[in-house]
Amino acid sequence: MDKKRRARPEYSRLFGKAAGILVYIFMALPIIVIIFSAFSPSNFPEFPPTGFSLKWFVVIFTKKAWLKAIRNSLILLVLVTPITTILGTLASYSLHRLRFKGSELLQSFMLSPLMIPQIVLGIALLYLFSNVGWTGTYGALIISQVLIAFPYVVRSVNACMASLDPVLESASMSLGANNITTFRRITLPLIRPGIIAGAVFAAVTSFGEVSISLFLSSPTTMPVSVRVFNYIEQTFDPAVTAVSVIFVILSIVVLFIVDRTIGLSKAM
Amino acid sequence: MKSKRAFNWVLLTPVLIFLLLFLILPIVLLLVISFQNQNTYLQLEPGYTLSRYVGILTQWKYLKDILVTVGVALLTTAIALVLAYPAAYLLTCAPSKSVRSLLYVLLVSPLLTSVVVRTFAWIVLLSQNGILNQILEKLGLIQHPLSMLWNMNAVILAYVQVMLPFAVMPIATCMGEISPSLQRVSMSLGAGRIRSFFKITLPLTIPGMASGGIIVFALTAGSYITPLLVGGGMQPLLPLMIYQQAMQVSDIRLASALSIVLLVIVFIFILPVEALLKRWEVKVYG
């Protein structure tokens, strides 16, 4: 309605939109490039692509080392996601209900793994785990990935907790339900969107994390993200683009799930 | 109600134990070993020393790294915020739900693909036989491929692309909360579109810019993957120096001291902004 009424061309508005579109192109550009070169038959990325081939995908799915790295990543993802989701939900829920002096500070502290430079966390965890002989184990990788993904879960559950009316819980308890029943029957269903979004972020963080896993993984536990890093550092080979396409497809599937379950704009 | 409070503490305890063991403890250990004495073979000796910190804060090779790291992080943050603004604007004024969803996918998909993948894409684009050089050659603009990788410009370019979504999302959230009538009021009172932007929209999105800026700055200052891959590992950046000391020289104590310095630097920049942000929120929302 509003738009029709104004006949005068709105140059500033138009300029803002054009600039916005350029920025989105800039953000999407690398991904587009990756997808094109993964399906290219030549030995280095070409533009425009000279043909279509799946040979780099064949390389990935027939080389033992890549398969093993993918398996390692999946093992980590399956363990890291539930642990992080449970810890993050517990943290957000209990901290929202417990108001005390310094609870604000504790809240900031819980989100701090986002702010601490990843190289610092990497070195610190490397030293800790090498002292107890855990470097190179799945345990060390799981713990560090949980630590990195934890703030994302806290943040997305916080968003739901903020709009949760505590009266609902009091009502449930005054009707005779105990703490656990109330949490399960009242609270949990109401904060479910936040938990799902948090779990998605945790899974994605686990799958893509490289800065800390690089310090802590051994050749037998190396996840696919670290293997991609090692590979790029040594060679320039389109096989990596095929792995990257797997990453991209996974993320699109995830986005689709989030969009269908709770809506994208709500989750972020 | 007392049992409820106890119940909440029970829920919180495992979280606190986890963070104590794997966040606080490792950083405290890092601080401790950064003061430990060692001999020339990097073996532990009794006693503590300040010499590492004195060295870092007086020798040019470290100071330069510190200055460049801060400069690059500030520059990346500034560019990311400027670019994030029109992107956030486009997102909030998207005409339909499907366009908005598409923009969200474009926005979030970089976050969901590993930083190695995103950085690798820049190698594909910028390398000697990369796509940008091929296009320029076909257009006849250049005779020989340009060397666009392995320098700081490439690092900053990749940083901005990698960090942009973190800047766009909080700004878009802020913008979405501005009532459109505010701008209409401002314009009906005689202010032009540009003037209303600077008087209404910009001030109201400052919290979003601040929280986006904090994350971009912290992530940039602490990232070593991108400069290692795109910058060739030779750029004078603190995270790279830490990586090399820990992984190649195996001087974990110097790496710790440098890490502590980096941590302190990041907090020096972030904490004041965060404090201002909190005060702003209290002022606006009570």
From TrEMBL, chain A:
InterPro entries: MetI-like (IPR000515), MetI-like_sf (IPR035906). PROSITE patterns: ABC_TM1. GO terms for biological process: transmembrane transport. The chain crosses the membrane at residues 21-39, 74-93, 105-129, 135-154, 194-216, 236-258. Keywords: Cell inner membrane, Cell membrane, Membrane, Transmembrane, Transmembrane helix, Transport. The keyword Transmembrane helix applies. It is a multi-pass membrane protein. It comes from the Bacteria. Residues 70-258 form the ABC transmembrane type-1 domain. GO terms for cellular component: plasma membrane. Its main location: membrane. It is found in: Cell inner membrane; Cell membrane. Belongs to the binding-protein-dependent transport system permease family. This is Putative spermidine/putrescine transport system permease protein. It comes from Sporobacter termitidis DSM 10068.
From TrEMBL, chain B:
SUPFAM superfamilies: MetI-like (SSF161098). Residues 66-273 form the ABC transmembrane type-1 domain. GO terms for cellular component: plasma membrane. InterPro entries: MetI-like, MetI-like_sf. It is a multi-pass membrane protein. It comes from the Bacteria. The chain crosses the membrane at residues 7-35, 66-91, 103-125, 156-176, 197-218, 224-242, 254-273. Pfam families: BPD_transp_1 (PF00528). It is found in: Cell membrane. GO terms for biological process: transmembrane transport. Its main location: membrane. Keywords: Cell membrane, Membrane, Transmembrane, Transmembrane helix, Transport. Belongs to the binding-protein-dependent transport system permease family. CysTW subfamily. This is Putative spermidine/putrescine transport system permease protein. The lineage of its organism: Bacteria, Bacillati, Bacillota, Clostridia, Eubacteriales.
